[in-house]
Amino acid sequence: MFSTDQMERYSRQILLREVGGVGQKRLLDACVLVLGAGAMGSLALLYLAGAGVGSIRLVDDGVVDGARLALEPLHDAAHIGHAKALSARDGLLARYPDISIEAVVEQATPEQIGSLMDGVDLLLDCVGTPLSRRLAAAAGWGCNAAVWSGGVSGDVGWVVGTNGAAAAPCLNCHESALGAAFKEAGQAEIDWAARAVLSPMVPGQVGSMLAMEALRRLLGLGGETGQVGGVLFRAGAVDFRPIEARKRPGCPICSEAP
Length: 258
What we know:
- By secondary structure, this protein is α/β, with parallel strands linked by helices.
- The protein is 36% helix and 17% strand.
- It has eight helices and eight strands.
- An eight-stranded mixed β-sheet has the order 3-2-1-4-5-6-7-8, sandwiched between helices.
- Helix 3 runs parallel beside helix 8.
């Protein structure tokens, strides 16, 4: 079932009752689509690959920027000016040569997100903008796939997701709940254009949480349907708050069955 190298690499994980050989095989057979290979995507990709997710399709149209290396630990100075998707692929394969990495040097758009979802078990939005979250919501809803999205503003980070079930709220339905949780944490409205961020810890924490939710879903932890909702945290105050979304009447994505 596993090569000698794989047995050595994943032995501690296989020892876990919740994973075992069967669970590790599920991870090796899985395919995850990751939008964004920047600050959040760096940690998500490293942990997905490190856990043994066998196939990763990553999409990013940006280039490695020296000013962002502290935020993006998957990249290095040797790749400044190179496409992020290709830099991320090279970094992952240097560590884990037995997994499959497909790098797409494009910006995900509504026109091609369907083809990007082909064969995918789960989608992670590591871009963290309203546009990327709505794109991920539509993509996941269209094929009943689990979708998780993260975001950062200052010292605040959040992760929201849905399991793809028709009765569950889609990712787009989380917007009002996310805004409410942000204000409950003592913050003003989310500034999506803000450049200030407590780095690299906050985006790194979000990326780690996204990877963990992906593994939970792929391993079937948390029940048959998995978690719906999310969490918002404020690093400066060590404050974690649940995000409890409800299906929104009239939602343009999930108000009608796909």
